[in-house]
Amino acid sequence: ALGNMALIHNIRGEFNVSLKIYDEVMLTAEDIYDLHGQAQTYGNYGIVYKNIQEYEKSIENLNLQLSIAEDIGDTYMITCAYNGLGLSYHYLHNFDKSLSMYSNAIKIEEEISDLHGLASSYCNQFLTYYDMGELKKAQTSLDAGLKIFKKVKNERALNLGKYEMSKVYFDNNNFDKAEI
User: Fold this and answer.
1) How does pLDDT run across 70-110, given as a tens digit for each residue?
2) How many CA atoms lie within 13 A of 50 on its CB side?
3) Cys-Cys crosslink for 118: which of 33, 36, 46, 109, Cβ 3.0 to 4.6 Å?
């Protein structure tokens, strides 16, 4: 319940409140030796710090999440950590490291058949390629993500992806395809 409250405060932009609640969640997880809860909370810290543009703190917490997730063998949490790290490195303009994190996530998501995660990782990869000006690679990544979102019938993500694809077409001077 506390974790959900912290998430709501994070969404509302009440980051300090969110961090204080996550501190309580972490204390509880540590008190009962709940490694999964600790890893999840480190990941949540990472998200909040990313949202307030404290990317180094985000990376620090996401690496702690990754370490624990690897220790307990939680592949889903490992891929969440890799994607979070990819985003934080992206915002630091460390694009090579960002792409490496997404590649790690994609490899695991393919192995465990996590289609939603795989589609999200491809879309995250798209953002990095796009900001690098690698428009063909960006389009390839986004195409892969959209294909999966279509397969799993995620209409919201599919529509957002189509919007992003229109930007790629526009930037490639392919104006006829740039319409949504």
Assistant:
1) 999 999 999 999 999 999 999 999 999 999 999 999 999 99
2) 23
3) 109
Tokens of 115: 């289609």
Task: Give the model confidence (pLDDT) of 101-123 as tens digits.
Answer: 999 999 999 999 999 999 999 99
Structure-block tokens of residue 177: 């395809």
Q: How far apart are alpha carbons 96 and 92 in whole angstroms?
A: 11
Tell how far CA 167 is from the center of its chain.
21
Cα–Cα distances (Å) from 162 to 73, 102, 121, 142, 167, in that order, read: 35, 21, 16, 9, 9
| Two tokens, residue 44 | 């949540």
Q: Which residue has the tokens 């996550």?
A: 22
Plot region of 34 (φ>0 → left; ψ -120 to 50 → alpha; else → beta): beta
CA 1 to chain centre: 23
Q: Structure tokens of 151? A: 């397969």
Residue ranges of the alpha helices (H) in the chain? 2-11, 15-31, 35-51, 55-72, 75-91, 95-112, 115-132, 135-151, 155-171
Tokens, residue 59: 């990376």
Helix axes 15-31, 2-11, angle to 10 degrees: 160
